[in-house]
Amino acid sequence: MASAGMTIGDAAARTQCTPATIRYYEEIGLLRPVGRGANGRRAYGHPEIHRLRFIRRCRDLNFPIDDIRSLLDVMDARAPSCLSARDLTLQHLETVRARRIELEALERTLKTMAATCTDACVARPASQCALIVDLAT
Amino acid sequence: MASAGMTIGDAAARTQCTPATIRYYEEIGLLRPVGRGANGRRAYGHPEIHRLRFIRRCRDLNFPIDDIRSLLDVMDARAPSCLSARDLTLQHLETVRARRIELEALERTLKTMAATCTDACVARPASQCALIVDLAT
DNA sequence: GCTTGCTCCTCAAGCTACTTGAGGAGCTAC
DNA sequence: GTAGCTCCTCAAGTAGCTTGAGGAGCAAGC
User: Which of A24, B53, B82, B123 fits A126 for a cystine, CB–CB 3.0-4.6 Å?
Assistant: First the structure.
């Protein structure tokens, strides 16, 4: 029961996924359809848990599903070498870096903008607030 | 033609939106339905361009559509004061900041991970690559 | 043996903010 | 007149799930 015939709920608890997410991963083919008990319920074992943890970790790292398919291929040794995994990681890193830089700029802009809405605004119509005027630029 | 009866294409060019996006904004009610010419085509004027620029700027700043509705209420002076706009901006700033910090952590993790896949990996099966093992953790 | 409450099942739709495509028509220039 | 652009509407697709409906099993307590 600890491993051979875990329910989807047990598997979810061990992998920080929800049951719905696990079914979804099965549906899109990240997880092969698992065996069913006599009652028609899915039964999970160690290999599935391992695979789910891998997927979950990748998602936590923000890898898109398609990247995860490729990373799983490496884990399953279906890929010729692990270089593809490193390449994917580096590409993904670049995406994250670019987005981080965008957000930094955004943060500065928003900070500046928020500061332009001051007590002076209260005396004037809302539509003349410097913040609103700025947004219309 | 310069202002009174701009086509959707003209409006798009002046606001960095696409025609499809403008139609979408109309559909979801950010933009009131605009007048049509005899041929059934939408005709845009200055107020619509102004509004579109406002919306576009907000989207560039990553404000969600629902926030933009509220910000438009302020611009239209339908809101009691501009304080709601400042609050929205500060809340959004906090969201951006939180996400930026997440991405920084992600960046560090990915950088470290990528570095673990080295020349040594080539000699071993791909599934034993330190990067892959790390992902399975 | 029955009820209560949890979990499980499937299938469909909803979320965000658009984009893409099909199918059809008008407008402009040569 | 015709080629090539833009415009129209409506429907579906994108990413990665989540939520809900409708129905059934299972385990514990009475």
Answer: B82
What are the tens digits of pLDDT across the range B41-98? 999 999 999 999 999 999 999 999 999 999 999 999 887 788 889 999 999 999 999 9
Asked whether residue B42's C-beta has any atom of DNA/RNA strand D within 7 A, the reply is: yes
Helix axes A19-27, A8-15, angle to 10 degrees: 100
Domain count, chain B: 2
- In contact, A16 and A56? CB cutoff 8 Å: yes
Domain membership flag for residue A131: no
CA of A27 to C1' of D22 (A): 21
Q: State which residues form the domain around B32.
A: 1-79
* Contacting residues of A for B121, CB less than 8 Å apart: 81-83, 86
Q: Which residue type is seen at A60? A: D
Residue type, A99: R
